Amino acid sequence: MGMFILKLIGYAIIAYFMSTAIHELGHVICGLLNHWKFFVLVVGPFKLYRKNLNDKIRFGIEKNPTFWGGYGGAVPEKFDDNVMKIFSRVLLAGPIASIVFGIVFITILILTGNDFAMMVGFIALSEGVMCILPMKLQTGMLYNDGTRYLRIHRGGQTADEEKAMYSMSLDNLLNGQAEIYDEEMVEILCRSEDASYKYYGLYLLYHNAEERKDEAEMDRIRREMSEMKTKVSSYIVKSCVLD
Questions:
Q1: What global pTM score does this model have?
Q2: Cα–Cα dist 189/197, whole Å
């Protein structure tokens, strides 16, 4: 009995990394099919990555454990009108890949009764369903894939927030950290009804005020962020540390 349990645990670990790899490859391949450029693929502590979009692909160890659950992406070489439409497809490609992968292994389970196929099938299906269902499930600051897809396609404020997050992330990736973040994009986040997005927007606004040496504005933002701390996760608070 003990050996059987150990075997299932081993199967579960392998199945989890297989499912995660397929999920992240779904995101990456969808980006590549839309003529985006490979940037990173993290599965567990291992990663393939570029230091910048013109660099060669390298193999390395991911030092940030928060990414060990899987992280992958291809990115455009510039932000244009089609980027968010393609990005919404990229979001869904990961969970769809997991679901298809899971169905394949559930079929193998039905045909063979194989324990490993059972583990892979159920873990992949679970991962795909959890990531595609729209729910208030955040990983760090952002929502799961399905929720972000809906936020983009609903239009209005939520779509603007997702555009702001992605455009500034892409700008940081392509050009390095901005001295002054795009004021329009930052203001969009500061107007958010979502505490996490608003807190991050205030953090960027504080950075801009600091660059301008606007002490009064820095004090105002610091007070507002302090009042919001209990509404956001400790992860976000730790990620948005003021000088």
A1: 0.88
A2: 6
